[in-house]
Design brief:
single chain; alpha+beta; 4-stranded mixed sheet; 30 helices; 11 strands; 53% helix; 10% strand; flat
């Protein structure tokens, strides 16, 4: 007879004792369970003990999380968290260096547990650790363990980062600025300062004033990936907390100190693979660089600004007055104004007043900056572009100014200039770290390509599509971008578009539609099978806190029999774990619903700011029964594709329809391929809208052939 649903079979072990195999009644109070376990080992004072999960982070079991205990779980009997906290804090305050070190070694793995962390914090554990850090008597393992434990305890959010004292922060800054210490200390100190900077504007200003940019550059140049990542994290945090003017000064200084070249050669093109954290920080740095262009992008041309009028004249003169103003020196004022107006129209402006074109926001003055940069840095290409098109027939000329404005708008959209930084994105372009003035250089390549393609296709705007296609390939340098984009001729773009159209468009004949409807169930089953296989392979997810982007990762996968979701924490760079090594399990039978976007509890807690838009798009949660309560397993997908695959797979497990955009695209692609395969023999045969009518029966059936009659 099967045991009741609230009874689970588990093992409990204790050091130097034979493990117990028991049936745990989840309805029985935890204190009574502990009493029975202690009695079996002849232990008195059961209130001094507690149960922990034996795998993973050895979390303490309470009435709130006991529903996570499943059949086959292994628990261990250990000291109660309040007594453990008292013992360890006593060890931290001992005069014995070895005793203090041993207490820290035991404290660090327990600090990630919320139950234990509350006990430590309530007993002034943060102040004790802060004293050890401020004293700095041992710059080796003791200091590294103290910084790690302090950061883990603060991450629970029980105490605000803003409560840290200025002397404490200055002491941690000293560890960043010092040279002679254990190699594990600087990354931990940098990580702590990053949290301080992101969480407290006031203390962030203190960190900004105390940590020189040159010191961060020194850490970045050490061939240690962990140290480089933490230094880059603090650098991007300082840049995000700075005002736009300060940010520009800081980036200018960093570029003068060759940070861009170092990133390109020693981080992007390093022999070791780049971690997700470093990729995210490079994305943030790229977004902040492009963000410096936003004021110009949002500012329309002022027709009364003398400086801007002079810039327009410089642009005109560079194209039409190769020998300076001498060519029009003898003209009257009216004649000269007429000449200038005609030349501005030849430049490609809509009319004789360029201000009307440049009043559009975006791109505003950024389009003018791009045109000036092109005219100054590629004068021969600029003159050739303008003069070539000014001599063509009107219907075939390529308008330089209007094309430049449209191209600048397209670049701003593709590169998301002015948009807030995502908390999870890693989509940076290596090309931007391989070239100074990358945005303007990209414009120079694009505008020349526009002219080239304009001639190939005789005046349409297809070239904008070419630019978007090539940027999607993520070229690593401007030269590689130029090579790829020039290889993408108009004929190739046309071929790609025709192929896409053939894939997207199918015949609307009723017989074909009927065939597609009959094929859908089989193909949806194939998609469902693929989604479940993807869940069985598993995915690495990142944990997101309410204050900052964390370094912690966790892995989740579906068991091969599709009955369990298994998950657990793991380190970045580690190989995918085996099913046996994942400590947590969620039975599919306990799952109740799938939530996405703003309905997810972990997204609702983060508010509704613009910077959380990407979280809405990538967030999903599973609600499940945990005893009599409803609990949630929360996810932030690493990409939109992973979001679609997981939500489809979980919907399939729950018996719900798979309604994602990816499913629609996959189904359409499979339907198109299968339909074409079925109709191969009917190629070039017109398919009627309706089936042909059945002819009437013959008037008689006297047309049987007698095979017995021999032919003469």
């Amino acid at each position: 007879m099967a045991p009741p649903r609230n009874v689970v079979k588990i093992a409990i072990k204790m050091r130097d004792a034979i493990p117990q195999l028991i049936q745990l009644d989840q309805a029985k109070p935890l204190a009574a369970v502990l009493k029975e376990v202690c009695d079996a080992w002849s232990l008195t004072h059961s209130e001094r003990y507690a149960l922990q999960f034996a795998d993973g982070h050895r979390r303490y079991i309470t009435e709130n999380n006991r529903a996570e205990i499943k059949n086959g779980s292994i628990l261990c009997l250990s000291t109660a968290p309040d007594l453990e906290a008292e013992q360890l804090l006593g060890g931290l305050q001992s005069n014995s260096p070895e005793g203090r070190r041993e207490a820290l070694r035991r404290l660090v793995p327990l600090a990630s547990d919320m139950i234990f962390a509350r006990e430590v914090i309530s007993r002034n554990g943060l102040q004790i650790l802060g004293t050890i850090i401020e004293d700095g008597d041992d710059l080796g393992e003791v200091l590294a363990l103290s910084l790690r434990a302090f950061s883990e305890l603060m991450e629970h959010g029980v105490v605000s980062w803003e409560t840290l004292s200025i002397p404490f922060v200055r002491k941690v800054v000293c560890y960043v600025n010092m040279n002679l210490m254990d190699a594990s200390v600087p990354p931990l100190a940098l990580g702590l300062l990053e949290s301080v900077t992101l969480s407290s504007p006031a203390l962030g200003q203190l960190v900004k004033s105390e940590v020189p940019l040159d010191r961060l550059l020194v850490h970045l140049q050490v061939m240690n990936q962990q140290l480089q990542t933490k230094a880059m994290a603090l650098l991007t945090a300082l840049l995000q907390g700075a005002s736009p003017v300060e940010r520009k000064h800081m980036l200018d200084y960093l570029w003068q100190r060759n940070l861009r070249q170092f990133i390109y050669k020693n981080i992007i093109h390093s022999a070791a693979p780049m971690g997700d954290e470093m990729a995210h920080h490079l994305y943030v740095l790229q977004a902040l660089m492009l963000g410096l262009l936003e004021p110009r992008m949002r500012t329309p041309l002022d027709p009364y600004s003398q400086e801007q009028r002079e810039q327009l004249q410089v642009l005109r003169q560079a194209a039409f007055e190769v020998e300076g103003e001498s060519s029009g020196a003898g003209l009257s004022a009216d004649r000269r104004r007429s000449l200038c107006a005609r030349e501005f129209r030849k430049l490609g402006f809509s009319n004789s007043n360029p201000a009307q074109d440049l009043e559009r926001v975006p791109p505003g003055l950024l389009a003018l900056d791009n045109m000036l940069y092109f005219s100054r840095n590629a004068p021969s290409a600029y003159s050739r572009f303008v003069l070539e098109n000014s001599s063509r027939e009107d219907k075939h000329e390529c308008p330089f100014a209007r094309g430049s404005i449209q191209l600048t708008v397209l670049l701003c959209e593709l590169l998301r200039v002015g948009e807030p930084c995502s908390e999870t994105a890693q989509d940076f372009s290596p090309m931007f770290f391989g070239q100074d003035q990358s945005f303007h250089e990209l414009f120079c390549v694009g505008i020349q390509l526009l002219n080239k393609t304009w001639k190939e296709m005789r005046a349409t705007q297809e070239d904008f599509d070419k630019l978007a296609r090539t940027l999607a390939l993520k070229p690593t340098s401007l030269e590689l971008f130029r090579t790829k984009v020039n290889a993408l001729t108009y004929g190739e773009v046309l071929r790609l578009r025709q192929t896409e159209r053939l894939h997207q468009e199918g015949t609307l004949a009723p017989p074909i539609l009927e065939l597609r409807e009959k094929l859908k169930p089989e193909l949806m089953g194939l998609i469902r099978q693929q989604r479940l296989l993807r869940l069985c392979e598993g995915t690495l997810f990142r944990k997101i806190s309410s204050r900052r982007r964390q370094d912690k990762l966790w892995f989740c996968c579906l068991s091969p029999n599709h009955k369990l979701l298994q998950y657990g924490d793991m380190e970045e760079g580690a190989s995918p774990p085996t099913l046996e090594s994942l400590p947590e399990q969620l039975p599919v039978a306990d799952m109740r619903a799938l939530l996405t976007g703003k309905d997810c509890p972990h997204v609702r807690e983060k508010g509704s700011g613009k910077q959380n838009k990407d979280l809405y798009e990538l967030a999903f949660s599973i609600s499940y029964d945990r005893g009599e309560e409803e609990a949630y397993l929360n996810f932030i997908a690493p990409s939109k594709r992973e979001f679609y695959l997981w939500t489809d797979g979980l919907s399939a497990l729950l018996g719900s329809p798979m309604g994602s955009e990816q499913t629609r695209l996959d189904l359409e692609q499979l339907l198109t391929m299968e339909t074409k395969l079925r109709l191969l023999e009917l190629e070039n045969v017109p398919i009627p809208e309706r089936p042909p009518p059945v002819p009437p029966p013959p008037t008689n059936f006297n047309f049987c052939y007698d095979c017995s009659i021999a032919e003469p």
